[in-house]
Amino acid sequence: MDRSINFRGIAGSAGNIMQGMGKFVFGNEGLESKEDSYVERYLDRISNGTIPDDRRSAMTELQSLVAESRSAQMSFGAMGFPILLNVLKEDREDVELVRGALETFVSALTLIETSQGLKTEVQPASVNSDLLSREMENISLLLSLLSEEDFYVRYYTIQLLTALLTNSLKRLQEAILLIPRGITVLMDMLMDREVIRNEALLLLTYLTRDAEEIQKIVVFEGVFEKIFSIIREEGYSDGGVVVQDCLELLNNLIRHSSSNQMLLKETIGFDPLISVLKIRRGSAFNFTQQKTVNLLGALNTVELLLTGGPSGESGKDANKNANQAALAQKNILDHLQLLGVESQWAPVALRCMALRCIGNLVLRNPQNLDSLAKKQVGEEPHVQPALNAILSIILRTSIAQEFVAADYVFKCFCEKNPNGQALLASTIAPHPNQGDMHGAADDMPFGSILLQALVSSDVNGDMEACCRASSVLSHIIKDNLQSKDRVLQIQLETPTPSLGRTEPLLHRIVTCLSIAASDGENDQSSQPEESYIQPVILRLLIVWLVDCSNAVNCLLESAVHLNYIIELASSKRYTACIRGLAAVVLGACVLYNASREKGRDAFAVADAISQKIGLTTYFLRFDELRKSLAHPSSEQQLRKELSRSSANSMSDFQEIEEDETNKDDQHPVLSEIFDSQFVNFLSKLEVDIRENIMDIFSRTKTATAVLPAELEQKNGEVDGEYIKRLKSFVEKQCNEMQELLARNAMLAEELVRTGGGNTADTSQKPSSGRDRVQIEALRQELEGAKRQIEALKTEKSQIEAEANNQRNLAVKVESDLKSLSDAYNSLEQANYRLDAEVKTLRQGGSVPYPDVEAIKAQAKEEAEKDSEAELNDLLVCLGQEQSKVEKLSARLAELGEDVDTLLQGIGDDTAIPDDDDEDEDEDDE
Fold this sequence. Notes:
By secondary structure, the protein is mostly helical. Helices cover 74% and strands 1% of the residues. The protein has a two-stranded antiparallel ribbon. Helix 3 (52-68) crosses helix 4. The protein is elongated, with a radius of gyration of 47 Å. The termini are far apart. Residues 1-29, 524-530, 633-639, 653-664, 750-769, 909-913 and 915-925 have low confidence and may be disordered. Keywords: Coiled coil, Golgi apparatus.
């Protein structure tokens, strides 16, 4: 009678809920009312029935209806929960009825897929899960059922708890923590029969996600021993989905906990984990999808151990180093190499994750770095160094994800490892078998293989190999000035010896960059696959130029390089990433420029940026680059939790790669190679570049001309020798200028011949990118020579006009000097005549004897007063004009004028006053 009263009250309130929510969800009032009546009838029989068989029969029919109909699920959630919970409390002795109640609960919480359902509509399973998990008493009741002796009661209870965790994870985690011995009861299920054990394992896997307190309790209950005991029973990696669940549970426990990692290492060690990774050499056809997923789970465990814990946690580095050492002692490197390097028939996902584990194993660990450097792979007689084999994977694989993973190995190997970088850089040199790409590649040293990929790219058009080799080279020289200078000294025998000299490797890299750009413009269909080539090569240039003034000077040796980088940074044909990276290259040429040569110093580069790009546009390139590189961390994508729902997708990288390539304009390789570390490096570099460029333009550029030492008169050097030495210096400068003009003429003729050959058949392109670069260089030099010649012509005409003015002024001065000389001669004659008269008077004796000396002094004083002022003015003027004439003579000599011919007449005329001065001095004596 009490059950009847309770049911009617529940049914009365349920009618309003069903009519309001049911119509909104399903929109079929007739069908809904029919199923509601069935649910109500079955619940009435269960609640008010007196015959056990009839109640059990009603429970069975109710379970079938709820399992098939979403409307019935909603109706049951509104009316049936209190009734069936009451059955679980009061009818424990009726095992079959309890089983039916638990199975009905499981059906009510299981999602029913429909082809006509909308994704946004309310799901009855989710609503029912929320209703059941709202009261902690319900969870406690379910946990108590796990102690029942009946197998199916325990089995359906585990399933029901798992369904609740799937839909209401956080709420159930909090409830189980508050229930005494709640976790212990669940852990006991791992020792139950196999079916219940597997369900309990799945339940614990859900329960331990991002729940630190539950993880600690589970670990304290000895879960590590139980996990690997199950894995051993299932056959390690050859086991089924149970092994996958065990590894997922293990990864949940160690993902964000350094203490749990230490406990795993100290309790059972890493031997069981190594056993999961063991595979037979040559087992080409044994990689089923489930085995692949199991191995991925084990590799994910290794990666978590090598990470050491969450970032920022105290003791993370010490724990990581300890894990690296412990795993290395178990020879895990051999197993990782077999999976990632030697087993090219293994699934791509396995190879990629194994390579990443190799990188994390050696990262900043001197002992493991040394082991990898000495490691050999393969079987006799085909044995080669492991680093050579990994480099071959980078250069030959057709899968971008595998290239990224192998490149990550070199990134980790070279980071904070200057000795290893120097070792790899020392092997970079041309090899006698340079032309043989495949035949003797196994016998070539590491550096020769790398250099071959860089050098041969512009010949066979394989720009992707050049790009990948550039990425490896950037790791080798990063933050290592010794390696940068070592690689900078590499000279290549250029296939077009028209330049008459060998070609530095840095110049070849710029040539490859230009070829990649031209190939992308000519073949738009291939641009999506090759869109990462130019950014990766630009990254190499940035890494090379930073803190290396010699590299900056080498890059700027050819003006065409600077012009091409400016074009990359300014042209809208290229992506924001390419323009931004080119802007960083230009900034590095300013920031790390130590040259004092005019046209190649920091001010010249900054001035070219200002003139051809504009400072505002140039600085905007950095903002565009920052936005283009603002992507989710690739490490987060790679560390995605391995679960049953994601296992299949994670085991097939090729499919993911194709989807990502089609969906996004940016190639997925960029998002992984340009990691957060490199982005932060660019951000710091950008700040320094901005400050340096603004500092250059804020300073006044001094234009003080420094005269050569040859123009200064030496101590004790007589005028004749000084003039002779100046004359020789002027002749030398004239000869150099003539050689420069002849070279410019030769370049112009060569450019005309090249242009004429191309005009004969405009449909033919230059044979290679090198030809295009040389033509562009010649064109730039010719234009510069033309501008210089025009400027020299203008300056020459100005100097000639000024020289004529100075010549006329010199003639005037000469005339004034002659007039002064005539006056002086007249004075001397008068003086002579007076002396004669004095002598005559002395001889006659009749005339009073005059004071001759007084008369001479008076006459001389009067003469000096008349001419002293004019003479001083003329001498000062003559000195100033003589200085100007000397400077103009030097400049005319530089322009090729005959200086002696211009000065010949002036020198002869000005000799007369000098003779008069000598006569005057003799008379004074």
